[in-house]
User: Fold this.
Amino acid sequence: MFAELQEALQYTFIQRALLAGSFIALNCSLLGVFLVLRRFSLIGDGLAHVAFGAIGLGLLLQAHPIYVAAPLVMLASVGILALTEKAKIHGDAAIGLVSALGVATGVMLASIGRGFNVDLFSYLFGSILAISAGEVILSVLLSVVMLVAVALFLHDLFAVTFEEEYAKVLGVKTRRVTYMLTLCTALTVVLGIRVVGTMLVSSLIIFPAATALQLARGFKAALVIAALAAVGSVVLGIFLSFLGNLPTGATIVYVNFVFFAMAFFSARVSGR
Amino acid sequence: MKVLEVTDLSVRYQGAEVLSGVTFDVVTGDYVGVVGPNGSGKTTLIRCSLGLVPAAAGAIRLFGVSNDRFSDWCKVGYAPQASDGRHQGFPATVAEIVATGLLSRKRFPKRFRRQDSDAVDQALELLGIQDLKHKMITHLSGGQRQRVLLARALVVNPELLLLDEPTAALDPGTRERFYETLEALNRKARKTILLVTHDLGTIGRYAAKLLYLDQRLVFFGSFETFCRSDRMANYFGEYTQHLMCHQHSESVRVR
Assistant:
């Protein structure tokens, strides 16, 4: 098996998948901790549905789907926040509205465009092993930018997540921090679609955070555990899918589930 | 110096007026007990002062600056009510939470340094909860959680303390020690304190001024004035007035 892993590492497509996948997973997991604690984690799922529609538009326009999806999904994320603020709709309902619109748009465009249905549906479950060199560079660059943003605003993000009202009294620009978190999530979701697809991208956001919350004995610890679980699941998932000739996205989700189950039981055993 | 100026303040909530025409000034070194029945607008007054609730009419100034333009938040320490369940499952240690109180004096990029860690230790010591430093907030009792929120309010060494029912979940011994700590902060360090409480009997022993709310301002002034006021005797009945004044005069004798 070791020899097979060594062999896998020789392939450029595996190297690319590992590099881009790890960075994207790292982003998803860090943002996921904040989103899960703010009970806003399904925004990942909602935005992924919007991305489905946006990718449809990209295919129809014969442009690169990710380039079309990124700005549209970021716009949708702002729309979700605006709905919660202005229309007095709770987050879950706002996500539901925007997500349904996204899927309806995708289906509508697929019907108009005929011909590209197969391409559109390939985005449903991801294709990290088919990632191009350009996409790897873009993914790593954007991931680094977002990681730097999270690092710079870490304490503000923590304060807003723990108690938004109190954060305001600390002079934290809570609205700005929330928009930053949501825009980063939108961009991460678009990048994550390459790894596990629109159907599964929210798992990259929710699973590592949920795993971390079982074990963490502090906030920094939660971020570290989520990051390790996320990167570990992508690396292990890619290798296992290569060895077993399994679909990569689904394998990554299964590895995440195993990590979560292990954390859940070890927390129960240690009485946390 | 005027630390908090409230002028003709009215606040509406879902169409109903919860505060109406409230006017009073708090100056440096004041220790004001904010008292009133349930739904009298005590918490709303504090939250509105901090800009967390919009005012329907009137003006609020903090340290001479309108509260919507106020930015010197390190001068203000705020402890909200410690409701159960709000922080359930949140993976943060007491030290991490208390340290957030320091963010009000940080500029971008906000980083914690060695002296910040010392400030956290001092705040925990002041509240007698050093042993909880590395405990998770989610594992604490209501009283412990309340003291953590108080430590968070005190950690930045603010000039004005706005405390919303800070003793509600404390046992009698801890409550007494907490009141003594506040008294020392008020007398020795000249901290200005506004403390919301239901504890009509006890507050007179510690606070120098009384602010009685019942959606409008019923009384604001010193306990001495309150005790001599026939209007207040008529409003509260002599028994309640006597109870509050007795506690206050006892404490004055002790001092």
In short: The domain at 2-254 of chain B is CATH 3.40.50.300 (Rossmann fold). Chain B has one domain: 2-254.
